[in-house]
Amino acid sequence: MSDLVARTGRHQQRYEDGYRLVAGCIPFRYRDSDEGPKKIVEVLMINSQSGPGLLFPKGGWENDETVQQAAVREAIEEAGVRGDLMKFLGDYCFKSKSHQDEFSPEGWCKAAMYALLVKEELCSWPEQSTRERQWITIPEALQQCRHKWMEEALEAFSEWHANKVSGVEGEEDPISVASSPPR
After folding, report:
1. What does DSSP assign to residue 65?
2. Taking every annotated instance into account, which residue ranges of this chain make up the domain Nudix hydrolase (predicted)?
3. What gap in Å lies between CA 152 and CA 149, rounded to an integer?
4. Nearest alpha-carbon partner for 27 in 111, 112, 117, 113
5. pTM for this prediction
């Protein structure tokens, strides 16, 4: 059994201008191609607990952590992966049907999304009993995305990755998680 435990509750949850603040990531890795030296990029998606379609790991950003720490924590809790945050992909607003409360009665959320280069897949993680993970290509992920805003984040990831591979963006160092001030 894992000694990692998922955080629960809303007492530490951050809000801003009526939005519940959320952090998440698009976990990715490279695998060898069957057709030569080119590598294929795959993204990791997880099943939704409330219907069909796949999701990227994300969840509430809490008061005692930076947004980067929250994104890394959600990747561990929901998808059982660890790695390096490589790129901030943007903020994405959406309406949650399941997370309406006194601070966000309409259920509005704003998700800060990052690209996470996966270095380790855990055998045991907090939500393994309710989550299945699936490595798929970007075109497959676009078809499987449960939410439009996640498709938009994936398109931002795809554009960043294409620029990175073509040399437009060059090599990037991972984003520091431990010492980053809150966003």
Report:
1. S
2. 18-158
3. 5
4. 117
5. 0.85
In a domain, 129, yes or no: yes
Cβ-based burial of 53 (10 A; exposed 0-12, middle 13-18, buried ≥19): middle
Q: What is the pLDDT of residues 97-136, one digit of tens each?
A: 666 566 555 789 999 999 999 999 999 999 999 999 999 9
Q: What radius of gyration, in Å, describes the C-alpha atoms of the chain?
A: 16
Chain center to CA of 58: 5
Tokens matching residue 119: 């270095």
* Bridging pattern class, strands 54-55 and 58-60: unpaired
Tell me the CATH number at 121: 3.90.79.10
* 3 within a domain of the structure (yes/no): no
Question: Residue 2 above 50 pLDDT?
Answer: no
Binned at pLDDT 50, 70 and 90, residue 93 comes out as very high
CA distances to 3, 19, 31, 137, 151 from 42, rounded to whole Å, are: 28, 31, 7, 5, 15
- Which residue's structure tokens are 């040399």? 167
pLDDT of residue 52: 80
56-77 b/e (C-beta count within 10 Å ≥ 16 → b): bbbbbbbeebbbbbbbbbbbbb
